[in-house]
Amino acid sequence: LFLATLTYDTLRFEYEDFPETKEPVWILGRKYSVFTEKEEILLDVTSRLWFTYRKNFPAIGGTGPTSDTGWGCMLRCGQMIFAQALVCRHLGRDWRWIKGKRQMDNYFNVLNAFIDKKDSYYSIHQIAQMGVGEGKSIGQWYGPNTVAQVLKKLATFDTWSSLAVHIAMDNTVVMEEIRRLCQSNVPCAGAAACPALEPDGLYNGCPEDVGLRERLSPWKPLVLLIPLRLGLTEINEAYIETLKHCFMMPQSLGVIGGKPNSAHYFIGYVGEELIYLDPHTTQPAVEPGDSGCLPDESFHCQHPPCRMSIAELDPSIAVGFFCNTEADFNDWCQQIKKLSLVRGALPMFELVERQPSHFSNPDVLNLTPDSSDADRLERFFDSEDEDFEILSL
């Protein structure tokens, strides 16, 4: 509780905990120096939307839980990685939250999409109830793949953001599938979604000539989530270099991962340590103030970020990327191809132009024909125990 009320002055003092190292600090595609850019690092971290356990929110489903303490950590991590996509979509990667400064309307539109009530697009209520269709009862722990699948379904209702969400299964990203998804000619959300023009010339997160641009180059902004298992019970060291590179890409949304009671949202790394936001703090649910304005300080982590050794990462993760334009996606593909040439870095997933046949590609998990998709995904990605087997490596 003490940390939630730290002032900015005590932060300067506290922040000395950050290692004094020549190694660069990478935060979601941005490179910083600890020696010259401490304030900037902290501001970047604080600006991410931080979702934690909450208590005393309206009962989920009308009669269900009023708190997610103890079970909602991966759902909160899913909210954080998706909120980062919405921030990039509507505010841009350079946007910063400054305590006490009046924020633009689009910021509150993004935040409102995650508030703990049943009619927010990505609320804990929506995620928990949509998860029932994925075989998860309300109050049950999710793995990274389940939360990704649920968020993909919820995003279809978010016409304001008009996102294309792709979840790459079987460790394979198929470029053709993504292009087809992003080029399905659905126009950007119209004026009704966001009637006021932002003072900085942004309209609904798009430049004013969006209607014209949609006709010339229809591309829905892409959220790409890749559920992975990087080892059996602990992360295989051969993947560590590749994982670090994911945080260096400008398209990075970070990584969600962990096991029950220890899910985290990883936003960067320094040296051999991952930097993450931790959802395991219970805060009271937030109600809009008398003015209708949402008190937002508890949605920003205002103390130095947590760190842990990369070697301690649970092998079950989902990596996220955001490509606002087709050029962003093409650039991402080029970076992934280059990464496959880095010595000592084992690719975490394969990038292919077209869907390979499972039988001609021995590297892809062979699927037994009688196992249903749901069982297979559950066993492979969300396993809380270790009795699954990897059929071919």
TrEMBL record:
Gene Ontology terms: cellular component: autophagosome; cytoplasmic vesicle; cytosol; endoplasmic reticulum; mitochondrion
GO BP terms: aggrephagy; autophagosome assembly; mitophagy; piecemeal microautophagy of the nucleus; protein processing; protein transport
Record-linked Pfam families: ATG4_LIR, Peptidase_C54
Segments forming domain Peptidase C54 catalytic: 39-335
Keyword terms of this UniProt record: Autophagy, Cytoplasm, Cytoplasmic vesicle, Endoplasmic reticulum, Hydrolase, Mitochondrion, Protease, Protein transport, Thiol protease, Transport, Ubl conjugation pathway
Gene Ontology molecular function: any one: protein-phosphatidylethanolamide deconjugating activity
Reactions performed catalytically: [protein]-C-terminal L-amino acid-glycyl-phosphatidylethanolamide + H2O = [protein]-C-terminal L-amino acid-glycine + a 1,2-diacyl-sn-glycero-3-phosphoethanolamine; [protein]-C-terminal L-amino acid-glycyl-phosphatidylserine + H2O = [protein]-C-terminal L-amino acid-glycine + a 1,2-diacyl-sn-glycero-3-phospho-L-serine
InterPro entries according to UniProt: ATG4_LIR, Papain-like_cys_pep_sf, Peptidase_C54, Peptidase_C54_cat
E.C. numbers: 3.4.22.-
Cellular compartment(s): Cytoplasm, Cytosol; Cytoplasmic vesicle, Autophagosome; Endoplasmic reticulum; Mitochondrion
Stated family: Belongs to the peptidase C54 family.
Physiological role: Cysteine protease that plays a key role in autophagy by mediating both proteolytic activation and delipidation of ATG8 family proteins.
Annotated protein name in UniProt: Cysteine protease
Species, as recorded: Rhipidura dahli
Taxonomic path: Eukaryota, Metazoa, Chordata, Craniata, Vertebrata
Gene encoding the protein: Atg4b
